[in-house]
Amino acid sequence: MSKNLEISTLLDYYGMLLTDKQREAIEYYYNDDLSLGEIAAIYNITRQGVRDSIKRAEAVLTEAEEKIGLIRTTKMLAESLAAIRKNVDIIDQRNMRVYRSDEINESIINILKELDRLEEI
Question: Are residue 31 and residue 87 in the same domain, yes or no?
Fold first, then answer.
């Protein structure tokens, strides 16, 4: 994952942990592609001040993910849900070819409904 995408994702999950100024500066830098000089002009501070603020914000976001792990957990859950869906499809195909069981079909429908519900979260 590119650093821009990584920081943008961290910002989506943990941006509320930053001060308003840190959040704005990091959004300008990573999402809006403004330079340190451009951001410094907006805040009327030095480029070094902007850089320090962005580095502190990056540290807060990274530490939050290391401790809380929402991104890691979300990715793991998405992979698990995809694997479950794939296996349900295999069972469904086998049921249609071999067993033709209404009970299995009903269970498959219920599992798929639950998967859909979980994927909406």
Answer: no
- Is 13 strand, coil or helix? helix
For the chain, the domain total comes to 2
Run of H or E residues at 117: helix 102-120
Q: Are 119 and 111 contacting, i.e. CB atoms less than 8 angstroms apart?
A: no
Task: Give the CATH number for residue 10.
Answer: 1.10.10.10
Stated pTM of the model: 0.84
Task: Give tens-digit pLDDT for 18-54.
Answer: 999 999 999 999 999 999 999 999 999 999 999 999 9
CA distance 115 to 117: 5
User: Are residues 111 and 56 both part of a single domain?
Assistant: no
Which residues have CB under 8 Å from 23's CB, separation 6+? 11, 15, 57
Q: Name the H helices within 69-101.
A: 70-94
